[in-house]
Amino acid sequence: MFDAAVFGSLFLTLFVIMDPPGITPIFLGLTSGRPAKVQRRMAWQAVAVAFGVISVFGLLGQQILDYLHVSVPALMIAGGLLLLLIALDLLTGKNDEPKQTKDVNVALVPLGMPLLAGPGAIVSVILAVQHADGTAARVSVWAAIVAMHAVLWLTMRYSLVIIRLIKDGGVVLVTRLAGMMLSAIAVQQIINGVTQVVQAA
């Protein structure tokens, strides 16, 4: 009732796309200035949102995209533009404003989606579910999805220890680094989307 090859293949694919080590500075940058209890809750919320989105697309992904007449490249470009806006906020320090920090739940957007549950992860899950023949393969696909989200939660949950060590100056540095990394991810996502559009034309 379990296919290790299917599990390993999807888990590694999602690990590369969702990138738990790379998400750490971005998570720290987006949640800096909040109490530790709030940061822990946001780590949980981000993973829950990502899991919910991935699960919905795993079950109904192709039907949703077909119904909305949305192509995968369009999803990539839209996600990239949204990430780029947030990256610019991090780079320019707008995220440091108290009002914005308290009022915006970054666990939902951009952490949960499109950073964790981005177009790459969504498409990978849709394809894995479509290609899963038999009960063992389907169980393995969903086991890989659950395991990946458990790793994401552990990574973000225990990355909070870093904040206590680096103090305020370090947090500013991490925030700027996160902005730079996020902008690069966003631009790459837009390039990938545009490339697919050009290739399909």
Describe, in plain words, how this protein is organized in 3D:
It holds the Pfam family MarC. It comes from Streptomyces camponoticapitis. It is a multi-pass membrane protein. It is found in: Cell membrane. Keywords: Cell membrane, Membrane, Transmembrane, Transmembrane helix. This protein is mostly helical and 201 residues long. It has one domain (4-200). The protein is built from eight helices and no strands. The chain has helices at 4-18, 20-31, 36-68, 72-92, 98-103, 107-116, 119-131, 135-200. The protein is globular and about 50 Å long. The termini are far apart.
Radius of gyration: 17 Å
Give the overall shape.
Answer: globular
- Domains counted in the coordinates: how many? 1
Helix/strand structural class: mainly alpha
Strand/helix succession: HHHHHHHH
Strand content: under 5%
Task: Please report the distance between the alpha carbons of the first and last residues.
Answer: 42 Å
Q: How many distinct helices?
A: 8
Estimate the mean pLDDT confidence. 86
Short description:
With 201 residues, the protein is mainly α.
Break the fold down into its secondary structure elements and pairings.
Elements: H1 4-18, H2 20-31, H3 36-68, H4 72-92, H5 98-103, H6 107-116, H7 119-131, H8 135-200
Helix pairs in contact: 1-7, 1-8, 2-8, 3-6, 3-7, 3-8, 4-6, 4-8
